Amino acid sequence: MTSASTNRLTSFGPANSIARTPETHPLTWRLRDDAQPVWLEEYQAKDGYAAARKAFADLSQDEIVQTVKDSGLKGRGGAGFPTGVKWGLMPKDESMNIRYLLCNADEMEPNTWKDRMLMEQLPHLLIEGMLISARALKAYRGYIFLRGEYVDAAANLNRAVEEAKAAGLLGKNILGSGFDFELFVHTGAGRYICGEETALINSLEGRRANPRSKPPFPAAVGVWGKPTCVNNVETLCNVPAIVGNGIEWYKGLARPGSEDMGTKLMGFSGKVKNPGLWELPFGVTGRELFEDYAGGMRDGFTLKAWQPGGAGTGFLLPEHLDAQMYAGGIAKVGTRMGTGLAMAVDNTVNMVGLLRNMEEFFARESCGFCTPCRDGLPWSVKVLRAIETGKGQPGDIETLEGLVNFLGPGKTFCAHAPGAVEPLGSAIKYFRPEFEAGISRSAAPVAPVQFVSA
């Protein structure tokens, strides 16, 4: 990526007009205007590791966990599970002294690039977040499981780890506390399914990246059979500000009406005037994100539909732009917040072709463990390809609707297939005529497939 495009990704507000401050932008206020990485000396000059020193000197391990729990921080990878609650699942038994902290940096959700920016430009923020989290969880070793294609992020993280080691912020007896923590960067082999935490664990162990049966959950049986906590990059990067500034400050960042606390990296891509990534308070509306930050559609294009948070979220219409951007706000209009990085679909795009492209990706990335996902997703691709080329059969749309239902939540081994078919179901709901246009009028009527649950 060129420096010019990186600058666009880190811009904040219309034409960079809104200043980032520690009080309002805990994730991004340290970013450099030239988009170069913030190394240790500069990071410490900008209060870097001050929260870690506070956590080690003034807070017990249980107090750190309770602080994060009371802050309302939720996972930023898409699932939105409360972070403090997840931390609280780790065993209290002091005899279980081998524990692991894993950072899920396998950012392979199409149309999502937020973690990349943090790792490339603020690697020490992630390291500080992991250091505080490891202290709270009594984890002696951590791994950053990184998407293999993120070459620059890997280089910057590895350099930052070495800087932290040399400064006594990683390794043995950190800050004179007697606490030891080693941190390693592990690049993955390139599978979308590794974003599922137990598939990530299997891959880290050198196994095939299949999700594991749960329970037991990783907090009880994780990496090499030991208690393990897995958190997303953006989630861990929130921890220093929460510990450093307090619970009430963090809660006060969100807009009124939002049930999610703090800020969120949000973005917009597609044929908008100012595609980019911004740190915004939970509760801003989709319209603010689209019009005030992304600048609306480019001249000559109109907004046809949009996805609020990655390829695995359902499509919405322009009239849904007034929904607030937090999990509950987006749920009110029928889909999920996901990763918070939206995509604009313009009036020139055929939805059938777009969905065929998406489902090809999801079908290819299935681990193949369970039948509905392994066979159902390629089936959807075959049907969509026929409709796209005008060779669809009567009953094909009903077959697709059956697949959406049959691969829905709770009907497959993990959440891969439900996420894959969510955009398909919403596209049929809102743009059915485009699917009907691909049904061959000369084809003999075919009875739709009947899906029967076992």
TrEMBL record:
Domain of life where this protein originates: Bacteria
Entry keyword annotation includes Zinc: no
PROSITE patterns according to UniProt: COMPLEX1_51K_1 (PS00644), COMPLEX1_51K_2 (PS00645)
Pfam families, A to Z: Complex1_51K, NADH_4Fe-4S
Known catalytic reactions: a quinone + NADH + 5 H(+)(in) = a quinol + NAD(+) + 4 H(+)(out)
Composition skew (Polar residues), residue ranges: 1-14
Molecular functions (GO terms): 4 iron, 4 sulfur cluster binding; FMN binding; metal ion binding; NAD binding; NADH dehydrogenase (ubiquinone) activity; quinone binding
Cofactor(s) needed by this chain: FMN; [4Fe-4S] cluster
Function according to Swiss-Prot or TrEMBL: NDH-1 shuttles electrons from NADH, via FMN and iron-sulfur (Fe-S) centers, to quinones in the respiratory chain.
Family: Belongs to the complex I 51 kDa subunit family.
Full protein name: NADH-quinone oxidoreductase subunit F
Species per Swiss-Prot/TrEMBL record: Pseudomonas turukhanskensis
Protein encoded by which gene: nuoF
